[in-house]
Fold this sequence. Notes:
The complex is a heterodimer. Chain A has 14 helices and no strands. By secondary structure, chain A is an all-alpha fold. Chain A has one domain: ABC transporter involved in vitamin B12 uptake, BtuC, CATH 1.10.3470.10. In chain A, helix 2 packs across helix 11, helix 3 packs parallel to helix 5 (94-114) and helix 6 (120-128) packs across helix 10. Chain B has a domain at 10-80 and 205-262: P-loop containing nucleotide triphosphate hydrolases (Rossmann fold), CATH 3.40.50.300. At the A-B interface, helix 8, helix 9 and helix 12 of A face helix 2 of B.
Amino acid sequence: MSEVIDFLKEPWTFEFMRRGLLAAALVSVVAAVVGSFVILKGMAFIGDALPHASFGGVAVAFALGENLYVGGGIAALVTALLIGFISRRGVIRHDTAIGILFVGMFALGVLVVSRQQNYTGDLFAFVFGNVLAVSWSDVWLTVGIGLAVLAVVALFYKELLFTSYDPTMAAAAGLPVASIQYGLLALLALTTVIALQTVGIVLVVALLVTPAATAQLLTRSLRGMMALGAALGAASSVVGLYIAWYGDVSASAAIVLTATAMFLAAFLFAPAKGILWRGAQGRAASP
Amino acid sequence: MAADPRREGPAPPDWAVDVRGVAAGYNGHVALDAVSFTIEPGCLAGLVGPNGSGKSTLLKVVLGLHKAREGEVLIFGRPGRPEHERVGYMPQAELVDWAFPVSVAEVVLMGRYGKIGLVRRPSREDRAISMAALERVRLADRAGRLIGELSGGEQRRALIARALAQHADLLLLDEPFAGLDATAQHDLLGLFQELRHEGKTLFVATHDLSCVAEDFDHAVLLNRRVIAFGRPGDVFTEENLNTAFQRHLMVLHSGDKTFIGL
C-alpha cells in the first residue's frame, strides 16, 4: 500500500511538477469552459487558428526582447478581431478569412525567427509546449488571466448562451450581438495565450475542444458541459503529468493524449450518446 | 395621462403593422421594392409569395433586424426596431440549432433576456412568466426536456412560448408550418386562432396558400412588391396569384372551402 502512495506522491515532491500541475490544471479548466462555446458554435477551426497566429506575435516579441506572452496575446487578439471584422462584411466566407489570416500571422513568425541566430529554446517551448518549465511569474499570469476569463463568462453567461444559441433572436431582443461575439473571440484569444506554454501552439485546440466534447457526450446542459469539461480537463492534466513523469515523455503530449483517450471512451460507452449504447438500443428495438 | 404627440401626416395609431414604401436588399440585390401594406391589430395575417419573393427579408425589416433602404415601418404606431418589446419573432425552423444543449424552459426564458438587461440574472418573476407561457402553449410537462428532444410541432410551440414570455403583442412567424405533418399543422393553426382571439396579432410567412385562404383573416401577397393585400378572398384571385407566381394557379371554391393549386 505504501508503495502505491509513494508512487502517487513522488512526482509532487518536486516544485516544478507542482507548478506545472497548477498551470496545466487551471488552463484546462478555462479552456474547457471557453471550449464549450467553441464546440457549440462550430469554432474549432478558429480555436486552432488563434494559437498559430499568436506565433507571429511571439516571434516579434522575441526579436524585440519583449515579453513573449504579451506579443502572442496581441497577435491572437488582433487576428480574432480581424477575422470577426472580415467575415461580418459578408463578402468572404468565415473559414476563408480564418485561413488567410492565421497562416499569414504564422508566416510572419517564421520570417522573423529565420533572421534570429539562436531561437531554439524559448520559442520551441511555445510550439510544442513545456509546462514543466513554467516560472512562478508565468503561473501567476495564468492564474490572473484565467480567473478573469472565468469571471467574464460567469457574468455574461446569459448573453453568451443567447447569442450562441440564437443570434437572430438575440439581436431581435435588443442584445448587442456583434459586441458579444467579438467578446467571445477575445476570451478565446486570452485562453489561447495562457494555453500556449502548457501545451504549445499545435496542441492548444485539443484543450479547447476535447474535454468539452467528451463532456457533451455525458451531459444535457451547457452548464453541465462546462463543469464536467473542466473536471475532465483537470483530470487529464494530473494523469498526463504522471505519464510524463514515469514514462519520461512530453508532458503536453501526455495531457492531450489522456484527454483523447477519455473522449474515445465516452464516444464508445457514454449512456444514450455512445455508439455501443446506440447499437444495443438498435438491436433491442429490432424484432 | 397626456395625449401622445401626433405625428405629421396620416399615422393612424390603430394599425398593428404599417409598412410604408419600403425598399430593401442585400449587396445590391433588390429584395423588396416600394412595399406598402397595413395589418389591423388582433388579426391572423398571412404573408405569401413564391420562393425568393422577399418574405423573410420583409419579416426582418418589420422586426428591425434588416434596415430598409427606403420607407419606414410603424408597429402599433411606433418605428420598428430591435428594442421594440411588443414584437416577437419565430425564425425558420431550419435556421434554429436544435442540437444545442438547452432545455425547453431555458429557451422560453430567453424571451425575457431583452428585458432583464446585461449581466443581471433572471428573477423568480421572469421564471414564472416563462412557465405561464409554456402552460399557454400546453408544453408545461416538457419544460425540463432538451429542445431537440421535442417533436416538430412542439418545437414550434416552444418558440411561440418564447415570444409570449416576451409579452409580445405582434408575433412574426417565418414558415411555422414547414416540415410538420397534417395533425401538427392543424394543432398549430388552432393555437394561432386562440392567440388571435386573445388579442394578439400574428403575421405568418407561409407557402400554404390554401390554409391562408381558408383560415386567415388577412393576406399579403408578395413578389418583391405587394401584389395585393386585404381579405384572403379578395387577394387570392387567379389574376393576382398569376402575377405573383408567374404561372397559372387554379382557385377552386367548393362550398366554404377554397383550394389553390397548379
